[in-house]
Design goal:
Structural class: alpha/beta
Number of helices: 11
CATH architecture of the largest domain: 3-Layer(aba) Sandwich
Strand order of the largest sheet: 3-2-1-4-5-6
CATH superfamily of the largest domain: HAD superfamily/HAD-like
Number of strands: 6
Distance between the termini: 20 Å
Radius of gyration: 18 Å
Strand content: 5-15%
CATH class of the largest domain: Alpha Beta
Number of domains: 2
Shape: globular
Helix content: 40-55%
CATH topology of the largest domain: Rossmann fold
Amino acid sequence: MAQLDESIELKVLAFDIFGTVVDWHGGIRAEVERMLPGVDGSAFALAWRAGYKPAMRAVMDRLAAGEGGFTLVDELHLHILDEVLREFSLDDKLDRDGRRELNTAWHRLPAWPDAVEGLTRLKSKYTICTLSNGNIGLLTEMAKRAGLPWDCVLSAEVFKAYKPDPRVYLGAAGVFAVSPGQVLLVAAHQDDLTAARGCGLRTAYIERPFENGADRPKDVSPDPANTFHARDILALAEQLGC
């Protein structure tokens, strides 16, 4: 594990959200099974999530080519939902209003059991914020429903670029007028953390072995490049003396 440079005061903890702070798989599975009885909610949730990165890449490619504007994740999710309903032969099961209701399931995701207490403890010592590709409206409603005690809701929407674009990580430091090394990105995804380190941020890996469902455990092995590695957000609070 990398050693914390005590000469640089850590000031801001920026959190990835989906999978790190909230249980997207469990939340989406439950909503799908509520609105589409008889459907395999787990498989549907995984398919919906699988469309996320390709959709973001398409938007960034379009922006790089000077075509169109930035697209909110709510809009991406709705477009992907249309595709997944076709894939599951459910195109006729939800009208437009029903699709919009199901799409807002991403606003209603449950927090992991350790999240609220862990964030509250961290908030006593540091500024804590979201740093997610989710849009501001989505993240704000999620925080209200789940009781997530953010000091600030930051989104890729602010920077008109999705993670792992450097503008998002460096933009977070800029918002708080601190150096990148004074920001700790907390995430359950090593690719997100690798990109943040490339921008000079410090990083903390949170284990979420069942992010993709209890029957699809993922490898949560430590990466020594991360400043911290913790089983959950409460354990990270303990490491940071909160």
